[in-house]
Amino acid sequence: MINRVLIRIKVVQMLYSYLLTEKVFSLETQPTPPTKASRLAYALYLDMLALMTLIADEVTRPGGQHPLADNRFIRAVRSDEKIRSVLAKNRVEPTPVLAPAIVAELANVVKESAPCRAYIKEGSVDMAGDLRLWRELFNSVIMTSAPLNAAIETLPGYSLRAMDIMRNLMEETFSNFSSSQSHIDDALRTLRHSLDMARELYLRLLILPIELTELQARNLEAARNKYVVTDHDLNPNMRFVDNEFVKALEADPQIQELLEKGTYSWIASDPILLSSLLKLILCSDEYHNYMSASSTDFAGDCEFWRRMLKYVLFPSQELAEAMEDKSVFWNDDIDIIGTFVLKTVRRFAEQNPEPVLPMYKDEEDATFGRDLFTRAVRGKEEYRALIDSVLNKDSWDSDRLAFMDVVICLTAVAEILGFPKIPVNVSINEYIEIAKAYSTGKSGFFINGLLGGIVSKLSAEGKLMK
Q1: Mean pLDDT across 431-459
Q2: What does the alpha-carbon distance between residue 314 and residue 141 come to, in Å, rounded to a whole number?
Q3: Among 216, 209, 243, residue whose Cα is nearest residue 313
Q4: Which of 202, 244, 419, 436 is deepest in the core (most CB within 10 A)?
Q5: Total domain count for the chain?
Q6: Confidence band of 286 (pLDDT split at 50, 70, 90)
């Protein structure tokens, strides 16, 4: 039911919000005041982080793999300009702390340590696990190394105070990374909740015909019991109430379970809205044509509700406002979820044995949103540099691009590079449509040209093989 079109839209929306409020990870600054101990502590702090990156490069698996080098914490540390500078200087003149012998010995100890063995066995599961590995290695392996501590003690101005300051800086760095990554975790939870809410909307809209029918049945029964009744009250046209599609929908096991729980009941939660929607139906030409037809059958009953939903209920302002009040996630969802509901009506008409759509088609679709969002976040600097490299500077100013256009491009590039089974033209076309719907009037044209340039560049460099 939740297809990749909807997932892409949700990912773009979530990435837009995430990047606007992103908590950027950064290393600690030089402690103040700049005492002798604090200066040594800061230099040693940078050396410790650089040492971690060197250890990560040294730990290998059969086949030449470097399982720790792609660790998220290590990649974040390695990308910092100060660490790159420390590593560059060390290549020219190694410092005692970063001496090759110390790096090699620590790499061997790290590789055999319990935290590392468990990490390599399980793989990089999440960002919290990536951080936990290096926090444990720093405290239980690196800082207990006799050769490393001996090298540190040879540094000019060595003191226990400097060591304490360095440890505090390291702990602040671990906490800072944890805070920045928890923001990603929060975004992923919100993305998952948004998709869950889309499923809820689908089920609520399926239940709507059942409860509208139930309300009309109650109204007809109340009319029969009036003090003064007419022949029409006593002998009403029961075609609407006896609609076979509604009976089949009500008998579906998934829908039956929801009705028994009453979680999504319109009658219980919003009886005024339900009455208003019923009036729209009773006043519609669709209703009068259906009720006055000489006969009907199951296919005709399905077609009546398909048209009723498409032309009367889904376009109604009352329903749109109610959905917006119930959930912020439903502001833009009713149109696309409505198409899934109409598809479900057709599946009933075709006697499909499982007419109610599953939440996801398969496991790949179920993980697509999380994987796409994570790839876009992890690669945003690389992808933005790629976008800027193909941008026509005579026509477009990189710093003045519409932010939504940048977000759409970042997501598109993440998909093009990260999902080899999806054809490039499919990805490009999908994001052009998202740009037309969610960005500026010229965005579709802009996204088309930009992604075309990126694909050409990647293909020419041998980085895109599909």
Answers
A1: 91
A2: 62
A3: 209
A4: 202
A5: 3
A6: very high
Looking at the structure, tell me whether residues 335 and 420 fall in a common domain: no
CB neighbours of residue 148 within 10 Å: 22
**Contact criterion met (CB below 8 Å) for 2 and 195:** yes
**pLDDT confidence of 62, banded at 50, 70, 90?**
confident
Residue 98 belongs to what domain range? 25-182
Q: Which pLDDT does position 396 carry in this prediction?
A: 65
Residue with tokens 């293909």: 459
Query: Is the residue at 41 inside a domain?
Result: yes
For residues 233 and 313, state if they share a domain. yes
Which string of b and e fits 321-343 if b means at least 16 CB within 10 Å?
Answer: ebbeeeeebbeebbebbbebbbe
Query: Contact at 8 Å (CB) between 59 and 110?
Result: yes
Whether residue 290 sits in one domain with residue 158: no
Instruction: Determine phi and psi for 359, rounding to 5 degrees.
Output: -65, -45
Q: How far apart are CA 36 and CA 53, in angstroms?
A: 27
Find residue 61's DSSP bridge partners: 65
Q: In terms of domains, do 139 and 203 share one?
A: no
374 within some domain: no
Residue 369 has pLDDT above 90, yes or no: yes
Chain mean position to CA 306: 32
**308 neighbors 315 (Cβ within 8 angstroms):** no
